[in-house]
Amino acid sequence: MIGLGAARRQNGGNQVTQSVRFAVSTILVGLLVACGGNSADESAALDSATTERPKLGEESEVVITDLMRQAASLDPVARYEAKEGEAPASVPTDGLSVARSSHTASLLQNGTVLVLGGSKDVSSTELYDPETGEWSPAGEMVTPRNTTPATVLPNGTVLVAGGRGESGLLASAELYDSSSGTWSSTGDMAEARRGHTATLLQDGNVLVAGGEITGGATASAELFSPSSETWSTAGSMSTPRTGHSAVLLDDGRVLITGGASFAGTISAAEVYDPSSGMWAPAGTMAKPRTGHGALKLDDGKVLIAGGQALLLSPLQTQDSAEIYNPATGLWSPAGVMAKSRSFATVTLLGDGMVLIAGGRDKVALQSAEVFDPSTLSWSLVQGLADVRRAHTATLLPDGSILIAGGRDDAGRLSTVEIYELQQVE
Length: 425
What we know:
Layout: H1 13-34, H2 39-47, E1 90-93, E2 104-107, E3 113-116, E4 124-129, E5 134-140, E6 150-152, E7 158-161, E8 164-165, E9 168-169, E10 173-177, E11 182-186, E12 197-200, E13 206-209, E14 212-213, E15 216-217, E16 220-225, E17 230-236, E18 245-248, E19 254-257, E20 260-261, E21 264-265, E22 268-273, E23 278-284, E24 293-296, E25 302-305, E26 320-325, E27 330-336, E28 345-348, E29 354-357, E30 368-372, E31 377-381, E32 392-395, E33 401-404, E34 416-419
Antiparallel strand pairs: 1-34, 2-3, 3-4, 4-5, 6-7, 7-10, 8-9, 10-11, 12-13, 13-16, 14-15, 16-17, 18-19, 19-22, 20-21, 22-23, 24-25, 25-26, 26-27, 28-29, 29-30, 30-31, 32-33, 33-34
């Protein structure tokens, strides 16, 4: 068995027509970006919109990368050709207390994993202990919420801001103290939002960007200061977006890619510079995408993989990948995946390769594949134990990967598996 770990640093008549178009586009953004549903999901959601629609059942399938990771083994990853019917590289473990999808999973400084959101029980949170393989309650949030990112701060506390609550979108924020296991309120954002990104900057502040506000996507951004527990403006992006990705670059800037807005799915990218407080264009991806994977490679470049176009039919799931070079500001192709997929997880492995797992094409997927940055090639590897999308993948201190929750084609999942790539003779 080969370990996968390594420590990583880491959206008149003409007026009436336009109003109708705006309303329909807002619904599409909510269905596809927030819920990540397929055509059947969308039909069901539309049918139930005036009947039994859950208050808090809308989730943002935004892949959040843990920036606080602990040291792990540096064993190389075995490469091999996947064989039909081969056993998965996962072993089941104790499940979540509730079924969750589009939730967050954050590796804490003590080695446990905090999971929250993505369920009908919107105030509950739970902890996974890799030492025992057991789950335990982590208390209830001050304000019940879904569709919110979670950010581990330098002092070990976890910031949760915004999301959707029982009465609508939230501007409130709160902190989780892992040492005491308690939640407490902190300062409110200037704007209520969900489907946004939250990025830990090199100075310890947190950049919140974009998301959905009342009426559609927003371009606004805010900064949270952990020392004062206050928020301040961080200017506005050039493009309103929700369901986008955010990656911290080696030089301290933040790259924002893709997402969706009133106009549709977005291909434009931009960067935020904390030193100047300014936003600037960062070129254009070859394809517009939301629900894509995004992470920084060992050489400082950024890999963007998969995702989908915001269309009801046909659902345009992407199999393409591309790389952004911060030094030149240019985009280049990064091969073609074996499977088209959106709302998958991407994990940087110990040897610099990248694992992308699960997600969906027209159905939820079980397959996994590895990207080799040296050859810009993709190879199928052993898959997951279950089909799942909108799940989380957390690199644990021992190099294994905790795969939790998500959705299959029937609904939310509470199942959990530990993924470790096996070498095949």
